[in-house]
Amino acid sequence: MDYPAIQLRNSLPLSLICDNIRNPGNLGTILRSAAGAGCSKVLLTKGCVDPWEPKVLRAGMGAHFRVPIIANLEWESVPGNLPPDTCIHVASNQDPNAQDEPEHASGKASSYGWISRPRNLKAQAGRGRLPLDSNSEEDKEAEARDQNPELTVQSYCESWTQGPVALVIGGETQGLSLEALQLAESTGGRRLIIPMVPGMNSLNSAMAASIILFEGKRQLQKLESTRQTFPASG
Protein backbone atom coordinates (compact mmCIF):
# COMPACT_ATOMS: atom_id res chain seq x y z
CA MET A 1 0.00 0.00 0.00
CA ASP A 2 1.20 3.52 -0.79
CA TYR A 3 0.97 6.03 2.04
CA PRO A 4 0.66 9.84 1.78
CA ALA A 5 4.03 11.53 1.28
CA ILE A 6 3.29 14.07 4.00
CA GLN A 7 2.63 11.25 6.47
CA LEU A 8 5.94 9.59 5.60
CA ARG A 9 7.86 12.87 5.94
CA ASN A 10 6.45 13.36 9.43
CA SER A 11 6.93 9.77 10.53
CA LEU A 12 8.91 9.30 13.75
CA PRO A 13 11.01 6.40 15.10
CA LEU A 14 8.00 5.50 17.23
CA SER A 15 6.12 2.22 16.85
CA LEU A 16 3.03 0.91 18.57
CA ILE A 17 2.43 -2.71 19.57
CA CYS A 18 -1.14 -3.75 20.37
CA ASP A 19 -1.42 -6.65 22.79
CA ASN A 20 -4.85 -8.32 23.03
CA ILE A 21 -6.82 -5.27 21.92
CA ARG A 22 -10.15 -6.97 21.26
CA ASN A 23 -12.61 -4.08 21.26
CA PRO A 24 -13.09 -2.77 17.69
CA GLY A 25 -13.81 0.78 18.79
CA ASN A 26 -10.71 0.89 20.96
CA LEU A 27 -8.46 -0.45 18.23
CA GLY A 28 -9.81 1.98 15.66
CA THR A 29 -9.28 4.90 18.02
CA ILE A 30 -5.77 3.68 18.84
CA LEU A 31 -4.89 3.46 15.13
CA ARG A 32 -6.23 6.98 14.61
CA SER A 33 -4.04 8.29 17.45
CA ALA A 34 -1.01 6.37 16.14
CA ALA A 35 -1.41 8.00 12.73
CA GLY A 36 -1.87 11.41 14.32
CA ALA A 37 1.22 11.04 16.49
CA GLY A 38 3.35 10.06 13.50
CA CYS A 39 4.01 6.42 14.36
CA SER A 40 6.11 4.65 11.75
CA LYS A 41 4.05 1.44 12.08
CA VAL A 42 1.57 -0.44 14.23
CA LEU A 43 2.05 -4.11 15.10
CA LEU A 44 -0.86 -6.28 16.22
CA THR A 45 -0.13 -9.54 17.98
CA LYS A 46 -2.38 -12.59 17.76
CA GLY A 47 -5.45 -12.08 19.90
CA CYS A 48 -6.20 -8.58 18.65
CA VAL A 49 -9.38 -7.88 16.71
CA ASP A 50 -9.05 -7.85 12.91
CA PRO A 51 -7.95 -4.29 12.01
CA TRP A 52 -10.05 -4.44 8.83
CA GLU A 53 -13.25 -5.30 10.67
CA PRO A 54 -15.91 -2.67 9.77
CA LYS A 55 -16.20 -1.22 13.28
CA VAL A 56 -12.42 -0.79 13.47
CA LEU A 57 -12.37 0.92 10.07
CA ARG A 58 -15.15 3.27 11.14
CA ALA A 59 -13.39 4.25 14.38
CA GLY A 60 -10.04 4.59 12.58
CA MET A 61 -11.36 7.41 10.38
CA GLY A 62 -8.85 6.74 7.58
CA ALA A 63 -5.87 5.84 9.79
CA HIS A 64 -5.56 2.48 8.02
CA PHE A 65 -4.42 4.31 4.89
CA ARG A 66 -1.90 6.55 6.66
CA VAL A 67 0.19 4.20 8.82
CA PRO A 68 1.46 0.66 8.07
CA ILE A 69 -0.37 -2.00 10.07
CA ILE A 70 1.07 -5.49 10.48
CA ALA A 71 -1.41 -7.88 12.06
CA ASN A 72 -1.62 -11.38 13.52
CA LEU A 73 2.01 -11.51 14.71
CA GLU A 74 3.50 -14.07 17.06
CA TRP A 75 5.59 -12.45 19.78
CA GLU A 76 8.72 -14.13 18.46
CA SER A 77 8.40 -12.19 15.20
CA VAL A 78 7.77 -8.77 16.75
CA PRO A 79 11.45 -7.71 17.07
CA GLY A 80 12.06 -8.51 13.39
CA ASN A 81 9.36 -6.00 12.45
CA LEU A 82 10.99 -3.17 14.40
CA PRO A 83 14.08 -1.05 13.63
CA PRO A 84 17.35 -2.35 15.12
CA ASP A 85 18.06 -1.35 18.73
CA THR A 86 14.43 -0.41 19.39
CA CYS A 87 13.69 0.00 23.11
CA ILE A 88 10.26 -1.40 23.95
CA HIS A 89 8.25 0.14 26.78
CA VAL A 90 4.87 -0.91 28.18
CA ALA A 91 1.95 1.28 29.23
CA SER A 92 1.09 0.42 32.81
CA ASN A 93 -1.10 1.59 35.65
CA GLN A 94 1.00 -0.04 38.35
CA ASP A 95 2.25 3.02 40.20
CA PRO A 96 4.30 2.01 43.28
CA ASN A 97 3.84 5.51 44.74
CA ALA A 98 0.04 5.45 44.49
CA GLN A 99 -2.06 5.00 47.59
CA ASP A 100 -3.50 1.56 48.23
CA GLU A 101 -6.85 0.88 46.59
CA PRO A 102 -9.84 0.55 48.94
CA GLU A 103 -10.93 -2.98 49.74
CA HIS A 104 -14.10 -2.64 47.69
CA ALA A 105 -12.19 -1.70 44.52
CA SER A 106 -12.87 -3.89 41.53
CA GLY A 107 -10.58 -6.86 40.98
CA LYS A 108 -11.06 -6.77 37.21
CA ALA A 109 -7.94 -6.76 35.06
CA SER A 110 -7.11 -3.11 34.54
CA SER A 111 -7.40 -1.35 31.22
CA TYR A 112 -3.78 -1.57 30.24
CA GLY A 113 -1.58 -2.57 33.16
CA TRP A 114 -2.32 -5.92 34.76
CA ILE A 115 -0.63 -9.11 33.69
CA SER A 116 -2.46 -11.85 31.86
CA ARG A 117 -1.70 -15.53 32.18
CA PRO A 118 1.01 -16.71 29.75
CA ARG A 119 -0.60 -18.22 26.65
CA ASN A 120 1.54 -21.36 26.80
CA LEU A 121 0.93 -22.11 30.48
CA LYS A 122 -1.20 -25.17 29.72
CA ALA A 123 1.50 -26.54 27.42
CA GLN A 124 4.10 -26.00 30.15
CA ALA A 125 1.95 -27.98 32.56
CA GLY A 126 1.69 -30.81 30.05
CA ARG A 127 5.49 -30.92 29.81
CA GLY A 128 5.79 -31.18 33.58
CA ARG A 129 7.05 -27.61 34.14
CA LEU A 130 3.92 -26.71 36.09
CA PRO A 131 1.53 -28.85 38.14
CA LEU A 132 -1.35 -30.16 36.10
CA ASP A 133 -3.88 -29.31 38.81
CA SER A 134 -3.20 -25.56 38.68
CA ASN A 135 -6.74 -24.73 37.66
CA SER A 136 -7.96 -22.20 40.22
CA GLU A 137 -7.95 -18.51 39.37
CA GLU A 138 -5.71 -17.90 42.40
CA ASP A 139 -3.17 -20.41 41.11
CA LYS A 140 -3.21 -18.88 37.64
CA GLU A 141 -2.67 -15.38 38.98
CA ALA A 142 0.12 -16.55 41.29
CA GLU A 143 1.88 -18.35 38.42
CA ALA A 144 1.72 -15.22 36.26
CA ARG A 145 3.05 -13.04 39.07
CA ASP A 146 5.95 -15.42 39.71
CA GLN A 147 7.07 -15.03 36.09
CA ASN A 148 6.47 -11.27 36.01
CA PRO A 149 9.66 -9.42 34.95
CA GLU A 150 10.72 -6.49 37.11
CA LEU A 151 10.66 -3.35 34.99
CA THR A 152 11.64 0.12 36.14
CA VAL A 153 8.55 2.28 36.63
CA GLN A 154 8.48 5.93 35.58
CA SER A 155 6.00 8.61 34.64
CA TYR A 156 5.16 8.82 30.95
CA CYS A 157 6.27 12.48 30.91
CA GLU A 158 9.84 11.62 31.94
CA SER A 159 12.37 10.91 29.21
CA TRP A 160 12.01 7.51 27.51
CA THR A 161 12.87 8.29 23.85
CA GLN A 162 16.65 8.31 23.45
CA GLY A 163 16.43 6.36 20.18
CA PRO A 164 13.94 4.21 18.26
CA VAL A 165 11.15 3.23 20.65
CA ALA A 166 8.02 1.13 20.70
CA LEU A 167 5.08 1.24 23.08
CA VAL A 168 3.00 -1.80 24.05
CA ILE A 169 -0.61 -1.16 24.95
CA GLY A 170 -2.66 -3.99 26.45
CA GLY A 171 -6.35 -4.74 26.12
CA GLU A 172 -8.95 -3.97 28.76
CA THR A 173 -9.87 -7.59 29.45
CA GLN A 174 -6.56 -9.44 29.45
CA GLY A 175 -4.16 -6.59 30.17
CA LEU A 176 -0.49 -6.90 29.25
CA SER A 177 0.73 -10.37 28.35
CA LEU A 178 3.76 -11.93 29.97
CA GLU A 179 5.39 -12.04 26.53
CA ALA A 180 5.10 -8.26 26.24
CA LEU A 181 6.81 -7.73 29.58
CA GLN A 182 9.57 -10.20 28.78
CA LEU A 183 10.24 -8.48 25.46
CA ALA A 184 10.34 -5.08 27.14
CA GLU A 185 12.76 -6.38 29.74
CA SER A 186 15.07 -7.79 27.06
CA THR A 187 15.40 -4.35 25.44
CA GLY A 188 15.83 -2.37 28.66
CA GLY A 189 12.28 -1.01 28.47
CA ARG A 190 10.26 0.46 31.30
CA ARG A 191 6.73 0.65 32.64
CA LEU A 192 5.27 4.03 31.71
CA ILE A 193 2.54 5.18 34.06
CA ILE A 194 0.02 8.01 33.82
CA PRO A 195 -0.39 9.36 37.38
CA MET A 196 -4.00 9.74 38.43
CA VAL A 197 -5.83 10.82 41.56
CA PRO A 198 -6.32 8.16 44.26
CA GLY A 199 -9.32 5.91 43.76
CA MET A 200 -9.09 5.79 39.97
CA ASN A 201 -8.02 2.37 38.73
CA SER A 202 -7.02 3.02 35.11
CA LEU A 203 -7.81 4.78 31.87
CA ASN A 204 -9.45 3.34 28.79
CA SER A 205 -6.72 1.66 26.69
CA ALA A 206 -7.29 3.97 23.71
CA MET A 207 -7.06 7.06 25.94
CA ALA A 208 -3.87 5.80 27.59
CA ALA A 209 -2.27 5.01 24.23
CA SER A 210 -3.12 8.47 22.90
CA ILE A 211 -1.63 10.29 25.90
CA ILE A 212 1.63 8.34 25.87
CA LEU A 213 2.07 8.36 22.08
CA PHE A 214 1.72 12.12 21.84
CA GLU A 215 4.17 12.54 24.71
CA GLY A 216 6.57 10.29 22.80
CA LYS A 217 6.05 12.50 19.74
CA ARG A 218 6.88 15.60 21.80
CA GLN A 219 10.03 14.04 23.24
CA LEU A 220 11.30 12.78 19.89
CA GLN A 221 10.73 16.13 18.20
CA LYS A 222 12.51 17.92 21.05
CA LEU A 223 15.41 15.46 20.81
CA GLU A 224 15.71 16.03 17.06
CA SER A 225 15.57 19.81 17.52
CA THR A 226 18.36 19.63 20.12
CA ARG A 227 20.52 17.55 17.80
CA GLN A 228 20.07 20.05 15.00
CA THR A 229 20.89 22.98 17.27
CA PHE A 230 23.88 21.28 18.90
CA PRO A 231 25.22 18.77 16.35
CA ALA A 232 27.69 16.22 17.64
CA SER A 233 31.26 17.23 16.91
CA GLY A 234 33.23 14.96 14.63
Automatic annotation (TrEMBL):
Molecular function GO labels: RNA binding; RNA methyltransferase activity
Keyword Secreted part of the UniProt annotation: no
Biological-process GO terms, alphabetical: methylation; RNA processing
Span list, region Disordered: 90-112, 125-150
Gene3D superfamilies: 3.40.1280.10
Alphabetic keyword roster: Methyltransferase, Transferase
Keyword Methyltransferase on entry: yes
Organism superkingdom: Eukaryota
The name this protein goes by in its record: rRNA methyltransferase 3, mitochondrial isoform X2
Organism: Alligator sinensis
